[in-house]
Amino acid sequence: MKLIKAILRPGKLDEVKRALVDLDIVGMTAFEVRGFGRQKGQVERYRATEFKVDFLPKVMVEVVVDDEKLDAALATIQQAAQTGEIGDGKIFVLPVENAVRIRTGESGTIAV
Fold it and tell me: Among 30, 62, 93, 105, which residue has the fewest nearby CB atoms (within 10 Å)?
């Protein structure tokens, strides 16, 4: 099993969710986060005054998938989240040793 952590634009969350559900990947956690990457924030203007916003609003989505679905999930997230502009985000993949469903006690991939 793998844990996918995807940091993306807030406006792309629903599109990514729908695309993953279409792949029969259910169970997702989303966090509102702030961060910056290569763009190093952006310059905003308010009433003719410029100021720099270092941390931009993003959404971090976490999904646990079977190893067999990993490549399809990565491609789906990338396609659904991509705008082609700087700041589209990043996807990270981490190993998951085990998962346990609290209600039933089931463990392993069946618990996901």
Answer: 105
When comparing pLDDT for 36 and 4, which is higher? 4
Helix axes 13-22, 70-81, angle to 10 degrees: 150
Residue 11: pLDDT above 80?
yes
Q: What domains are defined for the chain?
A: 2-111 (3.30.70.120)
- 56, 35 Cβ separation under 8 angstroms: yes
Please give the average per-residue pLDDT across 5-26, as a whole number: 96
The three-state secondary structure class of 41 is coil
Which residues sit opposite 4 in a β-bridge? 63, 93
- DSSP letter at 71 equals H
C-alpha dihedral over 89, 25, 31, 107, to 10 degrees? -130
Backbone angles phi, psi at 102, to 5 degrees: -60, -45
**What are the strands of the beta sheet with 2-8, ordered from one edge?**
29-35, 56-65, 2-8, 89-95
